[in-house]
Amino acid sequence: MSGGFVGTGGVAAGDTGGVPRARNRAQGGARPEAGPAEGAGRPSGRDRYLDLLRAIALGRVVVYHIFGWAWLTILFPSMGVMFALAGSLMARSLARPSPGVIRGRMRRLLPPMWAFALVVVPVMFAMGWKPVREEGLWWFLKLANYLLPVGAPPYPWESGSEGGWLDQSWADQAAGPLWYIRAYLWFVLASPLLLWAFRRVPWATLLAPLALTAVIGTGLVEIPGEAGLALTDFAVYGACWILGFAHNDGMFKKVPRYITVSLAAFVMAFGIWWASGHLTDEGWNLDEIPLAQATWSLGFCAILLQYSPSWRKLPGKLAQFDSTITLANNRAVTIYLWHNLLIMATVPIIDQLWKIPDMWKYGEQLDAAYPALTLVLIWPLLAVAILAFGWVEDVAARRRPRLWPNGSNGSNGSSRPTGSAPPAHAGSPDRR
């Protein structure tokens, strides 16, 4: 997979994660991930189990990009989960004519991205970004990917000046989450054909992405450039998307639970075995080991969807998190798009602590506390982003704009499935 978050001297090739350190001290690394998903709903209302999974996936993405703990990619493969949930919703929507469904998905997906680009791209230009003369007209055509993300949008590897308010890699990190938007768009466009194939040859359709990953994700066949990255993303998460079709069609109910769990455990064991022999500099970061990511995510999602209880209300103690889960689902795209940039924005805020007299005496402790301080600051910053830009998701979905849709009016959100899945990275835009 491609990408990275904040790193020393730029962004690494993988999703290492980790909060940026103070610029006047040690610099840490972090990677952009994975992104949001769509709101889930059944004909009689939202499925709160799926909403819970989506909220956990988003939270895991944010935490991963702050701390950079590779084991989080094993504990909860967020991007695979979000693609599986989105695939289930897409299959349900395709009960209607596919052209209208695709237009509707694109209408919900693109305006939040446009709002993001409307802020980020002008700032890039204001900080000295210029067209690449050697690329000529092609450079401007690539810029159109900020409007319709069929490919990778351009951005400067370094922006601003050393010692500026933001780290020079901020543009690289800000663009990180856009890989998910691109992948989601291509899955949406391919879904009518994929669903047609799945309902005729389900096993072959489900396993085809794994076979493709085994070819292009292991170095057996190398496809250079952004085309190779996009195809690898499609292959790695394609089985999870198609698994969502199976969930929508009720196929898990036709299979004894022990069979699903046994097969899933075997697939996951293969993923861990493969990862153990192909560890990168980032250790057990499955984002950097495509075949391990594909198989582990597929097995993990199969178990989650096999046990899917279709809650209308959150049970027991989970009910106390109802408003948070509702807000996360109603603003999934906003959270996913903005979280990476906002993590970087915490650095100059925390750096103000160095201006406190005699704080240098506690420099080592302050450096060690950077990730924890970032975790504290990111939530109010995300709240500001939700208030400032989240309403665009409502406009895109043709709903009345709301500033803080946490269900406090007694509703768990729209009874219809909401917006587009975000998401998981930046760098060579990094993710998960």
Taking the alpha carbons of the first and last residues, their distance comes to: 9 Å
Strand content: under 5%
Query: How many separate structural domains?
Result: 1
What is the helix fraction of residues, given as a range? 55-70%
* Rg result: 21 Å
> How many strands?
0
H and E order: HHHHHHHHHHHHHHH
Low-confidence stretches: 1-16, 20-44, 414-431
Shape by Cα distribution: globular
**Largest sheet properties:** none
What's the tally of helices?
Answer: 15
Which class best fits the helix and strand makeup? Answer: mainly alpha
| Arithmetic mean of pLDDT | 87
Description:
The protein is mainly alpha-helical. It has one domain (48-396). Helix content is 56%, strand content 0%. Helix 3 packs across helix 9 (225-248). The chain is globular and about 65 Å long. The chain starts with 47 loop residues before the first helix and ends in a 36-residue tail after the last helix.
Write the layout of secondary structure elements.
Elements: H1 48-67, H2 72-75, H3 78-93, H4 98-126, H5 137-143, H6 170-174, H7 178-198, H8 202-216, H9 225-248, H10 257-276, H11 290-306, H12 322-330, H13 332-351, H14 363-389, H15 391-396
Helix pairs in contact: 1-3, 1-12, 1-13, 3-7, 3-9, 3-11, 4-7, 4-13, 7-9, 8-9, 9-11, 10-11, 13-14
